[in-house]
């Protein structure tokens, strides 16, 4: 058999294998599985983010507790000082009162912040529980899907291997440089071999220049389409 006929038959087998491979990739069970896996991963990172936020909150609460303790100590020592030695002048009384006010307002703003953080932490806790519940539900579904799909996938891969083997067998007798050229063209254009239809490339439908056509008529078996780069054969 002629090279171009062998090449054409190889391409048909190769395209069949490719078609099966993309069908496998698009299988609804596979897509559903991927979707669930992505969902599970998103939830995991959301939980991780929340745990980090909560741990930052806990750290901040420790800082606030210390600050509150310090302010309370300062305040009580101020009260003690006033009780032991009442202010002697109006000026001194004002100063003491000013200090006490400053400490009290500091305390109040720390306490407000503390309550806000506690509320946020409780909210995150609630959200995290919610996520964990949803996660468990999807995980169960996912695990089952995965087992089912693995069996299906194994069958599909067996069929694909068979098609690949058939295609491989069909390379027998073809000049290796032709197969190499085929693979290079395939990277950007598929199928890589097209038939001449009238004076057009059967791949991209562009008319071929008459000089190229003359080469074919003069006996060249394979010419190249200048537009798409395919190998053009005449059968
Ligand atoms: Zn073309």
CATH architecture of the largest domain: Orthogonal Bundle
**Shape descriptor:** elongated
Overall tally of domains: 2
Could you estimate the helical fraction of the residues in percent?
over 70%
> Rg to the nearest angstrom?
39 Å
CATH topology of the largest domain: Helix Hairpins
Strand sequence of the main sheet, in spatial order? 2-1-4-3
List the helices and strands and how they pair.
Elements: H1 3-25, H2 28-84, H3 90-169, H4 176-186, E1 193-197, E2 200-201, H5 210-217, E3 222-224, E4 231-233
Parallel strand pairs: 1-4
Antiparallel strand pairs: 1-2, 3-4
The chain binds zinc ion.
Zinc ion binds at residues 201, 203-204, 206, 225, 227-228, 230.
Mind explaining what this structure looks like?
- The protein is mainly alpha-helical and 235 residues long.
- It folds into two domains: 16-169, Helix Hairpins (Orthogonal Bundle); 176-233, no CATH class.
- 76% of the residues lie in helices and 6% in strands.
- It contains five helices and four strands; from the N terminus they run ααααββαββ.
- The chain has a four-stranded mixed beta sheet with strand order 2-1-4-3.
- Strand 1 (193-197) and strand 2 form a beta hairpin.
- The protein starts with a helix and ends with a strand.
- The structure holds zinc ion.
- Zinc ion (ZN) is lined by residues 201, 203-204, 206, 225, 227-228, 230.
How would you concisely characterize the structure shown here?
With 235 residues, the protein is mainly α.
């Amino acid at each position: 058999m002629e090279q171009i006929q062998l090449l054409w038959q190889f391409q048909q087998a190769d395209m069949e294998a490719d078609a099966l491979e993309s069908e496998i990739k698009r299988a609804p069970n596979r897509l559903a599985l991927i979707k669930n896996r992505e969902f599970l991963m998103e939830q995991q990172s959301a939980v991780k983010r929340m745990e980090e936020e909560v741990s930052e909150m806990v750290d901040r609460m420790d800082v606030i507790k210390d600050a509150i303790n310090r302010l309370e100590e300062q305040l009580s020592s101020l009260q003690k000082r006033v009780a032991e030695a009442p202010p002697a002048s109006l000026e001194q009384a004002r100063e003491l009162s000013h200090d006490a006010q400053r400490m009290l307002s500091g305390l109040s703003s720390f306490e407000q912040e503390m309550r806000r953080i506690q509320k946020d932490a409780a909210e995150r806790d609630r959200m995290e529980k919610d996520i964990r519940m949803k996660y468990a539900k999807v995980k169960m579904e996912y695990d089952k899907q995965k087992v089912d799909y693995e069996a299906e996938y194994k069958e599909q891969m067996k069929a694909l291997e068979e098609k690949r083997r058939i295609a491989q067998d069909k390379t027998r007798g073809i000049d290796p440089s032709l197969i190499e050229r085929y693979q290079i063209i395939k990277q950007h254009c598929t199928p890589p071999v097209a038939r001449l239809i009238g004076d057009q490339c059967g791949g991209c439908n562009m008319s071929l220049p008459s000089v190229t056509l003359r080469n074919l008529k003069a006996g060249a078996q394979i010419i190249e389409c200048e537009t798409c780069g395919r190998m053009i054969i005449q059968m």
